Amino acid sequence: MNWNWNETSIDLPHSFENLKELLNIICRKENKFSQYEFAKWCDNLTMAFDDDETEELNEFDNIAFGIAQDIECQWDLFLVNTYSLEELQNLDLSKVKLPQDWFIEWLKQLNGK
Description:
mainly alpha
């Protein structure tokens, strides 16, 4: 099988526990990676699990899978709803930041709160 993996500077295996750890780092504002890198990492995580495998996941993993999908989707939606096509063509994506509240909410969901 040939995956279309995104290159990312985040050198962590694609696991749901690492998703939680990365969200913790972002919520503490200790990330040395851009949110763009994180969105690509989340996209890679979702690609690592196809629809057939998600049915076999436990409840935590299913929630984490949904959150990873949401992060990747919200990143794309934020870009198209915030910037014009011309701006996007010249935008340094590593400088784009989603609202911090979103990351806090995703972490709360992941923690079951």
